[in-house]
Amino acid sequence: MHHPKITYAFTALSLCVPALPAQNADATRNDPRVRAALDSIRAHNAWTLAQQISICQIPAPPFKEAQRAQELRRRFVAFGLAKVRIDSEGNVIGERTGTGKGPTVVISGHLDTVFPEGTKVTVKRTGTRLAGPGIGDDCRGLAVLLAVARAFNEVKLREPGTIYFVGTVGEEGAGNLRGVRHLFSKEMKDRIDYFISVDGIGLGITSRAVGSHRYRVSYQGPGGHSYGSFGMPNPIHALGRAIAAISELRVPANPKTTFSVGIVSGGTSVNSISSDATMEVDLRSESAEALETLDAQFQQAVQSALASERARWPESKVRLTVKLDTMGIRPAGGQADSARIVRVAQDAQRALGITVGRTEASSTDANIPIGIGIPAITIDGGGTGGGAHSLTEWYDDGVKGFLGPQWAALIVAMLAGRE
Ligand SMILES: [Zn+2]
């Protein structure tokens, strides 16, 4: 039950970035090679959709992304990326090597889906609409990566900085961001200047990381007969006390901070005192500080419930304990809208005629770099869609789906050094 102290990189980030004139996006876009890459993306839009469908028809359940990873690796090689490899955690990495000293930029999408083994992953296509598990989240992101890689290769675009293309493992749920964690703690530790995750439908920017703490809490005792052993602490009753206390917690609306007991389990039979009662709890906030406060209140509720249930049966010598396991910790944090990476993404939106909306907060692969002060955003991959994490997930490319990969291409071209 240890969790890292999150340090905010807010001030450092906004102080050390040079001012970026607004015309840079246009200058980059008007560079002949970048222009040609953007044109190529548009011209090859049908190809991009074919990539999205075919990669999505390879299953990628949590912790079982290997088959899809192998195929992504094959395509990275086929579409001109250099030094393509799969790292020890399972991430697929390829690069467009830069010409010299420029910032290192990572553009990534996640390989994994939430769907278990055996899920039917056939994609059904009706006009511009595609339906199938994972088609948006995050087959769209992977398709965007491939579209950008192919176009940069076709026009032989070289930036001062090296651009890495990464398919990450373990973004969803229990994966607990294991792929991107490995990337920043080992594989590419201290080598990444900017990180872009393409994950989501639409054309929005996520610049703040919603952090989450997830726990499994188990109250345990010897258990016994409901009648014969009456008078001993009851793990299920202790759990009930804890849930009652958690449900009364007060959290700020802004920064948005939330809690939920998502799963409860335990019990042997109606005429038993159970030996175990378990809940899984999800705590979230945009603010690292608010999340720490909520976490402390939650821990307090868990311990008080134990104490109250013990105190209810002062004569009993029977042991009641609580076990608290960490299921996942994702750091919270944010960047000001004035951070260079956010402004670059917004300038690129303007240059492509995309409406600049409000920046969002979410829980994505970008949480890890944001948590350690490395500029990172998650961008949507274009199109429209819905039903993420459900079997009825769909994606519609509409008439301007190509704007997603064009936008991603322009952002990475700008960040890698064309200023
Ligand atoms: Zn996703």
Jot down its keywords.
elongated, alpha+beta, single chain, 19 strands, disordered N terminus, 419 residues, binds zinc ion, Alpha-Beta Plaits
Q: Can you offer a commentary on this structure?
A:
With 419 residues, this protein is α+β, with helices and mostly antiparallel strands. The chain folds into two domains: 10-209 and 332-415, Zn peptidases (Aminopeptidase), CATH 3.40.630; 211-330, Alpha-Beta Plaits (2-Layer Sandwich), CATH 3.30.70.360. Helices cover 35% and strands 23% of the residues. The chain contains twelve helices and 19 strands. Strands 1, 2, 3, 6, 7, 8, 15, 16 and 17 form a nine-stranded mixed β-sheet that branches. A four-stranded antiparallel β-sheet has the order 4-5-19-18, with no helix packed on it. The protein has a four-stranded antiparallel β-sheet with strand order 11-13-9-14. Helix 2 packs across helix 12, helix 3 packs across helix 6 and helix 4 (45-56) packs across helix 6. The chain is elongated and about 85 Å long. 49% of the residues are buried. It binds zinc ion. The site of zinc ion has 5 residues, from loops.
